[in-house]
Design goal:
This protein has 464 residues and is α/β, with parallel strands linked by helices. It contains 17 helices and twelve strands. It has a seven-stranded parallel sheet with strand order 8-9-7-10-11-6-12. Strands 2-4-3 form a three-stranded antiparallel sheet, sandwiched between helices.
């Protein structure tokens, strides 16, 4: 969505992943599974195979332009590993300046490069039936050794086998069989790359957090400070990091792995008039795990009241979890406001958002997953309701490990998400919207976050 915004505002060409384009040789499959897979080593580089490939056309237009507009996921998958693209395209990817917009999300995107999730169904699907997930009682160190040796070798062998199968495409009997094979190839390739990167970092002594439950095992690097130099640091001469929510610059530089001596900080106040972006702290109760159920009935009443007071405008309700979103949806089922609520989710997310964007009806988005990356400018949102302070889930082992290492990191991450939520509806100097924070726990956060929350944001908060 942010890429489309850049294209609309500045006409900077962009390209998405192959799965977003329909293959011109077979309109029942995407370019991710298209004709290019006949020779997986060459992918889309041979134009004679598919001269009208929409993915290839979009990619060439984007990468041949002096200015390219790529999301983090695509950039890292294409340029993050020098073995993934040929030398010419690697050279085309080098820029004098690389701009990292919304750079507060860069750490999470880099860490995805060293995150591997495995369960028994995945092993069966990709054909790695010769390996078994270690017993949960095995040490995390041994589990990492299993991943970087036995699992890596099995996945790599299957990747090479699937590549040879795809070369003999003419022997396949049906599109269904081809889709299944191409899907396996893509899944195994992604896994091999992630394990390979994890193996490299593990061998260098980096900490890998292992989460192992009854359903799956996950490996994730604790820090990304070695990954930026490897995946992005050689791709440009200069880097411009931009975000409204880099709340602690020195910590950010350390987390990303930059040399502080080479970094210059530029901080600006908000140019958006404070009267256009007022944040009403109107608590109805605590939305902590132990208090959530007791608070929700009053929360639903308050939301109903706010919706009725703003019945003619579009807006967004941030819920932090789908559980809370569903309970609000069900709690408002008999309200005359219920037909305004839309919950973008799963396969119908984009369709639901299209309905919201294109309708004159005052719909209100209800979601835990729209904290950032969505542009609700002007009349697309005059109302923002925050049901819960967006604390990261401490039942997640990686989050808990980071929090135990630095409670300031945890508080900063929460403030970052909260500020991102309030920014969905205020997009320019002339834009305006009402924002409500209904969770009593905001005050606890505010006390902990003294010196972290920027003054320009604090100035907009009023207590009802």
């Amino acid at each position: 969505m942010l890429q489309e915004q850049y294209y609309k505002d500045f006409k900077i060409p962009f390209v998405l992943g192959r799965a977003n384009y329909i293959c011109q040789k077979n309109n029942t499959i995407t370019c991710e599974m298209g004709m290019c897979f006949r020779d997986p080593r060459r992918m889309c580089y041979d134009k004679s195979k598919c001269s009208l490939c929409p993915y290839q056309i979009a990619k060439e237009k984007c990468l041949s332009s002096p200015y390219s507009n790529l999301n983090y996921s695509y950039y890292l998958s294409f340029y993050g590993n020098d073995s993934k693209a040929n030398a010419g395209e690697q050279q085309n990817g080098f820029k004098e300046v690389l701009v990292l917009d919304e750079c507060h999300g860069c750490e999470a995107e880099l860490l995805k490069q060293c995150t591997v999730k495995i369960d028994d169904l995945t092993l069966k699907f990709i054909g790695c039936t010769d390996v078994k997930i270690p017993d949960r009682r095995v040490s995390d160190l041994e589990k990492c050794r299993w991943l970087t040796n036995e699992m890596y070798e099995s996945a790599r062998a299957n990747f090479l086998y699937l590549a040879s199968q795809l070369k003999s495409l003419t022997k396949l009997k049906s599109t269904k069989e081809y889709k299944k094979l191409a899907s396996k190839y893509s899944t195994v390739g992604t896994m091999v790359n992630a394990i390979s990167m994890t193996k490299e970092m593990f061998d260098k002594g980096e900490t890998i957090v292992v989460t192992h439950d009854s359903e799956k095992i996950e490996f994730k690097m604790l820090h990304c400070n070695k990954l930026f130099a490897k995946c992005m640091g050689s791709r440009a001469n200069r880097f411009l990091f931009m975000s409204a929510t880099v709340l602690n610059c020195k910590s950010y530089v350390k987390d990303i792995g930059l040399d502080e001596k080479l970094v210059e900080y530029i901080e600006c106040d908000s140019v958006f008039p404070v009267e256009n972006r007022l944040i009403h702290y109107s608590p109805v109760g605590s939305m902590s795990f132990k208090n959530k159920e007791a608070t929700l009935p009053e929360m639903i009443k308050k939301i109903d009241k706010i919706l009725k007071e703003n019945r003619d405008v579009k807006g967004i309700i941030h819920t932090v979890s789908y559980d809370v979103a569903e309970k609000i949806m069900n709690g408002l089922a008999f309200s005359d406001q219920s037909d305004r609520l839309l919950m973008p989710r799963g396969m119908t997310k984009n369709l639901t958002l299209d309905v919201f964007y294109n309708s004159d009806k005052p719909y209100v988005l209800l979601s835990p997953a729209l904290m950032e990356g969505i542009d609700l400018k002007d009349d697309l949102s005059r109302l923002c309701i925050i049901c819960k302070v967006p604390y990261a889930n401490l039942s997640d082992k990686w989050t808990k490990t980071r929090m135990e290492e630095s409670s300031e990191w945890y508080t900063t991450a929460t403030c970052m998400n909260l500020i991102q939520m309030t920014g969905r509806s205020i997009r320019s100097e002339t834009d305006f919207a009402k924002t409500y924070i209904l969770d009593k726990d905001f005050m606890t956060l505010a006390k902990r976050a003294i010196g972290i929350i920027p003054k320009w944001w604090q100035d907009a908060v009023i207590i009802d």
